[in-house]
Design a protein that fits this description.
The chain is mostly helical. It has 13 helices and no strands. 74% of the residues lie in helices and 0% in strands.
Length: 392
């Protein structure tokens, strides 16, 4: 093989075949790439949409959770408010319960106190009835006499009724006489002294004095007011005096001497500076009547101070506003008589018999000590003495 060397012909280069590439593959590749991009974009879009939807749902869920939390917080707040209200209501109920309990306790104590007081009053009334039922006729007469003596003191010192006081004393003396109690002798003796004291009391005639004051009121219209007023009748003496005042001084004196004994000239310290109207003159007379009514009120009340002051005021008003004439002088004289009257006399003390009767127990003891010893008592005492000394 080595020796045979064949000469190989030289290789003929093959002809170059130019293959023309088709553009369809390119378009397919581009289309595939575009589709891939579109699919990727669509996927990314859908992925974004999915994420956005998930985020929206998550946000909605978060909002719902927030709303739920707010609702829960509001519910918790309402529950807290309700608990606070319940606590306040419980405290109020506790306070009212305590108040009602205290009120009930106070009412119970008050009711119990009233029951105790009523029980005491009933016991006192029952004991009083028992004492009244155990009294004898003499005790009743003594109690009646004590009441009459109390009435006598009240009528004399509060009202000044001497006649009723005397009748009450006499009735009390009659009750004591009927009782037959020996201890009442001193009381009856004191009653006799008090009746004698009442006999010496001068009781003013209230009715007569009142009638005199009424007569003075009726005579007020007949008094002449001092100052001139419309409707006043002119006096002849005043007319003569006015005519004399117009003449000369010498003529006045001569005429005055000639008219001596016929004309009375009176001088007064009061100045006549105005002429009264009929209403003013009527008012002056009514004021005098009012002062007389004050005297009547003092007379009925038996108030000596008011009686004297009212008379003095009436006398002053009379002197100031009324002319000096016979009617005025008589009126003033009647007022002087009233001023000399003492309405409430100095009444004697008639409480001695009442004091003695209230101390009837001591009088009974004294009467028992001073009572004469009977024969049987003397014999018993002598026998007891002999037994003590051993003599027969």
């Amino acid at each position: 093989m080595a020796d045979v060397i064949e000469e190989q012909p030289e290789a003929i280069p093959a002809p170059t075949v130019v293959v023309k590439k088709s553009r369809a593959g390119l378009w397919i590749g581009l289309t595939a790439l575009l589709l891939t991009i579109l699919l990727a974009a669509a996927g990314f879009y859908f992925f974004q949409q999915l994420q956005s939807s998930q985020s929206t749902e998550q946000n909605q869920d978060n909002l719902k959770e927030i709303e739920i939390d707010k609702s829960l917080n509001a519910l918790h707040q309402q529950i807290a408010d309700l608990q606070a209200q319940i606590t306040n209501i419980n405290s109020e109920m506790t306070g009212k319960d305590n108040h009602f309990t205290q009120t009930l306790a106070d009412f119970s104590s008050l009711h119990e106190e009233r029951l105790n007081n009523t029980k005491k009053d009933l016991e006192a009334a029952i004991s009083g009835l028992q004492r009244q039922m155990s009294k004898t006729r003499g005790d009743w007469l003594l109690a009646d006499a004590e009441y009459l003596l109390t009435v006598a003191n009240q009528r004399l010192h509060l009202v000044g009724d001497v006649n009723t006081t005397r009748e009450a004393l006499e009735a009390a003396d009659q009750r004591l006489r009927e009782s037959g109690d020996a201890a009442a002798f001193k009381v009856r003796e004191q009653i006799a002294k008090e009746i004698a004291l009442l006999d010496g009391v001068a009781v003013p005639d209230i009715v007569g004095i009142y009638g005199s004051i009424q007569h003075l009121q009726d005579s007020v219209e007949n008094l002449a007011v001092f100052l001139p007023h419309a409707g006043k009748q002119p006096d002849q003496n005043n007319a003569a005096n006015s005519n004399l005042a117009e003449q000369e001084n010498g003529l006045i004196s001569s005429v005055a001497r000639q008219l001596k004994g016929y004309v009375v000239l009176r001088h007064t310290q009061q100045q006549v500076d105005a002429i009264l109207t009929p209403e003013e003159a009527h008012f002056i007379r009514q004021q005098l009547k009012v002062r007389l009514e004050m005297i009547e009120i003092a007379l009925v009340q038996q108030n000596d101070a008011l009686f004297a002051s009212s008379i003095a005021d009436t006398r002053l008003w009379l002197k100031k506003n009324f002319a000096e004439n016979i009617s005025t002088e008589r009126f003033a004289a009647e007022l002087d008589k009233l001023a000399s009257i003492q309405i409430r006399a100095q009444f004697p003390d008639v409480s001695g018999s009442l004091k003695l009767l209230k101390d009837i127990g001591r009088l009974r003891i004294e009467s028992d000590k001073t009572a004469p010893v009977t024969n049987s008592t003397a014999v018993n005492n002598s026998g007891d003495a002999a037994a003590k000394t051993g003599q027969p």
